[in-house]
Task: structure prediction
Amino acid sequence: MEEVPLRFEGRPARLRAEGPPGRTVLFAHPFPLDGTCWDELLRGCAGLGFRAAAVDAPGFGGTPPLGRPCTMDDLARLFAAALDVLGAKSAALVGCSMGGYAAMAFWRLFPDRMERAGLLCTQAGADSPEAKQKREEQARAALEKGPEAVVGPLAERMLAKGSPLVSRVRELARSATAQGIADALRGMALRPDSTPDLPRWRARTLVVCGEQDQLIPRAACDSLARNIPEARQAVLPGAGHLAFLEKPEETMAELRWLLD
Result:
């Protein structure tokens, strides 16, 4: 895996890539993991002849946090900077959860740079007042008690019940800083409702849902697929919110359709 030099707002950022130059797939990680969660799929896409890359949000993967709310527009601009250093005018963008929120922001800001979109276990709607309050409570807990105050209670809920991957999820979140967690939570709380944008999407789109997702309501996932013209929806049995980790082979099969 190659480390590609990248800076964002004057700070070092982490971008990892594999595969030959050319057609590009950029992966955007879910909260509170980092880009290494995509390694198996990066290798799969590279095996198909793509330049597959994963970028870390500020404060994750050992990168410095912004020290302010990290909005989905911030992440969209980070993705654009990543494409620039990869030499890609446009790319397929695959995002899970927070990464999916950021992919929708990328479409608003850079529609001509998104060739295809993979939206995994995410939703278009904005947070309710109750959800915003919960995120703020989590942000304060991370800053006062450390990252584990958020990661610990969340790890099991991100997976299907009884999943053996809880320790792996915690390991994938080990590099998240307390400030990065707080910044991302506050940024997600600020995101707008992307639903009005969806009927205008031109990118070929795949929507993946985990059958046992405990964080994103199935109705929200169904609505996302229904509102994007000609989107393909796949529901992965026995998978939770991190369906791509729990069912990597099935997810890769769906990505082959997206990238074909």
